[in-house]
Amino acid sequence: MPTATRVRDHCLAPARAVEAPAAGGTYRRLFPELAPLDCDDAALHALGRAGGACDTVDGAGGAEPADAEGAAGWPVLGQFVAHDITADRSPLTHHAEAAGIRNARSPRANLECVYGDGPGGSPYLYDRDDAAKLLLGRDDAGWPRDLPRNQQGVALIGDPRNDVHLLMSQLHVAMLHLHNGLVDRLRADGVAEADLLDQARRSATWHYQWVLLRDFLPRLVGAELADELLADGPRHYRPAPGAAWIPLEFADAAYRYGHGQIRERYRVHPDADPVPLFPDLLGFRPVPAARTVDWSCLFDQPGRPPAQRARRIDGRLARYLIRLPQALTGVAPEEDYGSLAVRDLQRGQGVGLPSGEAVAGRLGVAPLSAEEVGLAGSGWRQETPLWCYVLKEAQHRGDGERLGPVGGRIVGEVLVGIVDADGESYRAVDPAWHPTLPAVFPGDRDGFGAADLLAFATAVAAEAGSSRAGEPPR
Hints:
Elements: E1 25-28, H1 41-48, H2 56-59, E2 67-71, H3 73-85, E3 102-103, H4 112-115, H5 118-121, H6 166-188, H7 193-221, H8 223-232, E4 246-247, H9 248-251, E5 309-311, H10 319-322, H11 326-329, H12 340-350, H13 356-363, H14 370-373, H15 386-397, H16 405-421, H17 426-429, H18 450-464
Parallel strand pairs: 1-4
Antiparallel strand pairs: 1-3, 2-5
């Protein structure tokens, strides 16, 4: 094998091996001194069920929601991040002390949902014909554009939630191609076979962390707050190195903002008809070639028509999220727990979160007025559940485009804080590092963004299928 003079995608190795099994984490309250908002369950359910304040159709006279400025793919990426760093598998309606709630994910942005416990602990994720690469599945046209699946169609991945719908499973596929493409580049540069997996995993993770902090975060919380957090660090969430944890205010309220950005319908490629996410794009089944996602429909790319936009945040959810299919929830759509809004509100109640107004006071932020919250017409007489408050704050303080000062502070501090506390992150190991993959789309913040990552993954997928006769994939 020729020896390369420079390894393009080499990253400095941290002190601890990247492939070491990652233990789960804990949940705690970010503001434990604030009293829980103790709501009447019946009133809480009335807000979130069909016909309540969170329902797009009945809650607003049937008005269709407005498009945001941001592309439709950003909340999908946000959901991927959520699955990477947090998984509370306790019962939906639990009322528990935080110390008793376990996080099934490690609180690190390290692509654990992609790599699992490595080849030793999760061998079914890896390609036996090329030990450095991750295994991919093939669609019905023979192209490597699906998750690997068993004979019953169940995805073989590190987190089953990443097969919940088509957009999520296709984003996971893109991450598989990201890794495999980095293996090819490192191999071409002469990296030893024994080192390929570790180096490709580290490079993929650092590129992902860069996109998270430099492209995703400024769009979500605003450039000013993102720059402050990246320069000075968080004020309230400052875990010790190697000891990150997930605040319940983040997991069960603020980071559920993305539920309010889900569109009524999605076009997954230019020739497809727009359809609802549920039930039309429900996952847990093989993906046919006709449903392969063209990422230009979800993220803006030069030379292509503008992508679909996310839904503007206004405190309401798409109608099918208020009436989730029974195949997803286990309950009938007309039951309260068929509503994602009820589930979000009940989570906050179950873990004893404070009200949005209380958190605003703790942060020194002027609270929303009763008119801005807009729940009085629903008969609500208490302060506002934190999840609902974050959505209404985004509507009135973030123009429906981004989180307001309460939601933005919670989310921004946690995302920066978990990366900074991770001794294997690029900010801990090599703060001067910059992405080595090409930035093909001009205008990306700091020269590399999500669209570049997806363009690279798409090119890798095309190359992986190029040996097959016939028309190349989209």
